[in-house]
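Tutorial, part two.
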Amino acid sequence: MSGPEQVASQLDALVSPIGRELLDRLARLEVTPETELRVGALLRRDYPTELVTAALGQHELRRRAYLKFTRSQQMYFTRPGLEQATAEVIARHRAARFAAASRVADLCCGIGGDLIALAAGREVVAVDRDALHLRMAALNADAYGVGDGVTVVHADVRDVDLTSVDAVFVDPARRAHGHRMRTGDSEPPLSWSTSLAERVEAVGIKAAPGIARDAVPSGWEAEFIADRRDLKEAALWSPALATGTSRATILPEGHMLLPLHGDEVEHRDPGEFLLDPNPAVTRAGLVEDLARSLGAWKIDSQIAFLSSDQPLRTPFARTLRVLDSGPWEQKALKPRLRALDIGSVDIRRRGLAGDVDDLHRQLKLRGTRRATLVMTRVDDRPWALICTDPNSADHDFG
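Running the prediction step on this input gives:
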């Protein structure tokens, strides 16, 4: 039996009454790398060996999937399917863009991460050429109680008739033969995905967060999505769904930053506070727009740091209190840190070359305080800032 056939056979066994019983039993046990052999031996007294092996593998995938899906214990996964699946919080945010659609095509649906959110309150045609993932997508939609509105189609997405839908979401594959494709490459290619707007006006495309903004067609919106400070992915929206040219979204709260045109942002030396924009803001090209919204300034024309003399609070940036600021001189750095009683530092480098690990070794700090050491440039000059979290007890250096 070949690999795909074996996995399909394992899924048959796992969705059978005895397979579901075994998975439910596993969910009540504490299975760790240390206990897995013992648990497996125990279960093989009551279940076939092949079923126990398949169930242990599925249980481990469900455990990992908990970070993405609240109902992971009722879902089915393959390792590649889980890795490529959209997390629930992102899928729900993105599905809101299709509020006006009553029937959506989910192309390259995989194991159904986006499908689950899209199928809440509307009909969805789920299409994938991977029969195993397509079956898992249907099962996973059932786990969330939205399976009745889902129609699955086993086909190449390029061959599907879209005349019956009023919106399309497509998640092109960005992996081939187990490896990531180059940033910007996908299957189907981006050009095919954007051309869908010629057939259906409302189109959304999942894209890699590293996609170049100049690859986005005119009239389309590029949305960069972060879960807190972790940049996850991008979404491209056709003109019928776009609200502008770019957007930064911070989940789980759903904070959104859009272009804010106005006067040119001032460039000058750092003030009392340093703002480190969220990666979604940086990728969306909205650093200056954030500065305008906050009344902050840039410390360098090419570096994505902002500054202020006020302790600004924003979901779009991390604010640090500047304890010491001056030109980068590595020999003088240790005395500067010692004078502030710094015993450990989180080194952040942006726009300035240097070996962070080697610098950690050279500093040999012995103080009692923690700080963030920022290696960067100010007006194109190498610069060092010693900072702390203004909300931390360590920020009061008297």
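The chain has a mean pLDDT of 93. In part three we will examine how such features are distributed along the chain.
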